[in-house]
Amino acid sequence: MCISIIGAIQFARSEGLIPAPEPTHAIAATIREALHCRETGEAKVILTAMCGHGHFDLPAYEKYLQGNMVDLSFSEDKLKASLANISQVTS
Q1: Among 14, 47, 50, 77, which residue carries the largest CB count within 10 Å?
Q2: CA pseudo-torsion sign 46, 51, 52, 56
């Protein structure tokens, strides 16, 4: 299981807030740093940010936890075709 989702679940259980998917990487890094400090005995203030909540992402959390999340990948040609449809901004 991805360490980010484990961190998000641990955060939700301990703080009562469900993080949006974006900050879960920072939460996981914060947990890793705190565990490192525990192992080394280093006293450190660790600050992390959490933007938004994951209430709208609950179906995605459920799919991931059930092993039903699909990782989409696109061919280079499809990516180039999509990027060609984006308007160019000039200064």
Answers
A1: 50
A2: negative
CA nearest neighbour of 45 among 33, 63, 29: 33
State residue 19 phi and psi, 5-degree precision. Answer: -75, 150
CA distance 31 to 7: 7
Residue 2 has what pLDDT? 67
Q: Where are the domains of the chain?
A: 3-84
- Is the Cβ–Cβ distance between 55 and 19 less than 8 Å? no
> What does the block give as tokens for 65?
């936890």
Residue 53 is which amino acid?
Answer: H
pLDDT digits (tens, 9 = 90+) for 2-22: 667 788 888 888 988 888 888
Q: Are the beta carbons of 46 and 37 closer than 8 angstroms?
A: yes
Question: Would you say the pTM of this structure is higher than 0.70?
Answer: no
